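> example.struct
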């Protein structure tokens, strides 16, 4: 079974100010699957906007460690299918503004990301068709996630 390669790339969500509305600049580690931004893949498939960031945000080490823990904890053999929010609002990090999530499960020697969805915390997650599943080898996956958490 061929495996996908997960890496992370530094990304910047630029700040701006217009007509009294200000958005904050954020630096984050964007999830890359086989060299392509997962956010781009999701936005293209879902048709929404791309103003999201991953949970690996510069200046928020505790959040980055929690995000890494959520991504890695799913790899444990006893873990149930686990839905993890992977892209959130860059202003407040609240799921109520909209977020992208994924179900993560493990199998012998690997991790599967599938069932990608858009959710907002008050409606059922809306599954995004034609994205994934992505299959990763466990050891490189864990190494990549731990390295990204040190942003």
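> example.seq
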């Amino acid at each position: 079974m061929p495996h996908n390669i997960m890496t992370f790339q530094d990304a910047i969500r630029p700040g701006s100010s217009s007509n009294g509305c200000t958005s904050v600049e954020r630096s984050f580690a964007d999830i890359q699957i086989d060299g392509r931004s997962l956010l781009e893949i999701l936005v293209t498939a879902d048709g929404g906007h791309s103003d999201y960031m991953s949970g690996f945000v510069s200046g928020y080490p505790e959040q980055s460690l929690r995000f890494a823990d959520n991504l890695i904890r799913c790899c444990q053999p006893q873990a149930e299918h686990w839905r993890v929010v992977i892209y959130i609002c860059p202003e407040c990090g609240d799921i109520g503004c909209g977020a992208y999530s994924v179900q993560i499960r493990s199998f012998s020697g690997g991790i599967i990301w599938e069932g990608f969805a858009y959710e907002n915390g008050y409606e059922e997650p809306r599954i995004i068709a034609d994205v994934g599943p992505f299959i990763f080898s466990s050891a490189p996956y864990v190494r990549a996630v731990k390295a990204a958490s040190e942003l």
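> remarks
The chain has one domain: 6-148.
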